[in-house]
Amino acid sequence: MYQKEEESIERAEEYLTSELAGTEAEAPFAALLDVARKLLRQSRRLVTMGDRMQGQLSSLNDELTHMARTDALTGLDNRRHFMDVARKEFSRARRTDTPLSLLLLDADHFKSINDTWGHDVGDKVLREIAEVLKSSIRAHDTAARFGGEEFVVLLPETGCREAAIISERIRASVERRLLTVDGRNVQVTLSVGSTTASSWDSEMDIEVILKRADVALYAAKKNGRNRVERYPGPECGSVCSSPVAVRPCH
Predict the structure, then answer these.
(1) What does the DSSP assignment read for 180-229?
(2) Do residues 233 and 196 touch, judged by C-beta distance below 8 A?
(3) Which among 74, 82, 108, 110 counts the fewest CB atoms within 10 Å?
(4) What is the pLDDT of residue 249?
(5) 173-229 confidence digits (pLDDT tens)
(6) If we measure between CA atoms, which residue out of 33, 5, 7 comes closest to residue 19?
(7) Residue 175 bears catalytic tag
(8) Which residue in 63, 149, 168, 175 is the catalytic one?
(9) What does the H/E/C string look like for 3-46?
């Protein structure tokens, strides 16, 4: 940048030395040349400052975007961003004719944990569950805090059998994970509702699949908690051995 301006100043310096030295024009030409040099230096500083400010603005925008998408307590995606991702993945699943599964997860007896140990411990429990989710899902999956003690996991290109394996892995990992508070262990468990959509299910959309997962989660709570229940999708009825939720979806 400014190469042409630098070359012009060099030529002007040569002209001043070779042609104007000792003449009446030497002084005013030298003053004008000095102004040109100062303007060039100031322009360079402004460009440097502009680049630095552009970088700072870009970093600030990245941070604001991250904050708008992230749950502040757990570091997972928030509900709003999850729904944006889910709608896109659902459209992609339809277009590519691939299954998509969704898990709805809820911490068991969370109110009792808050009442017994306080909200600080309740917050730690939610963060621990979030860590389990992060370490249990694949790179192309999405986990989010859906609200309160409820979480959601989206599993693109995943049929019901693989979703059942992932669900059980998450449930067992949370069960094994103990929090220690004042020398005492705090046991946490999860109930999980799982469902799978196929692209050829014309009546399915993200709202419906969420309702189905909620039905399965309700069944997991009703059947004793700390378990995985599945809402039977079209392709799951005869191939999966995991229990199914029997309450109809409305």
Answers:
(1) EETTEEEE--EEEEEEEE-TT-TT--HHHHHHHHHHHHHHHHHTTSSSEE
(2) yes
(3) 110
(4) 37
(5) 999 988 787 777 888 999 999 999 876 667 778 999 999 999 999 999 999 999 999
(6) 33
(7) no
(8) 149
(9) HHHHHHHHHHHHHHHHHCCCCCCHHHHHHHHHHHHHHHHHHHHH
